[in-house]
Fold this sequence. Notes:
Elements: E1 8-11, E2 15-18, E3 24-31, E4 37-42, E5 56-59, E6 68-76, E7 79-82, E8 86-90
Parallel strand pairs: 2-8
Antiparallel strand pairs: 1-3, 3-5, 4-6, 6-7, 6-8
Amino acid sequence: MRRSTRWILCLVSATACAAPGSSVTFAVTVYGAAVSGYQWYHNDTSHPVGGATTASLTLNNVQPSTNGTYFVKVTSGSLVGYSRAATLTVGYALATSV
């Protein structure tokens, strides 16, 4: 008999806009599985974020070079799942006068 394993990854923040020098946090919640590991990535799987191996990713002192997408790989035993990507945009807001 084949056992079906189902689990759900929920990325808490899907989009973030931030001023240069500020901090941004992305987080993932996993339902239905005991997590054995996390790894966050910037833009694609060839760019792992160093030391980012927990359910949340905090980026300090963000700059335009940190623009892009962030996602997490979650492992549960031999199972692997990826979250949807969250987008980070770093820049200054334009001031408008009324």
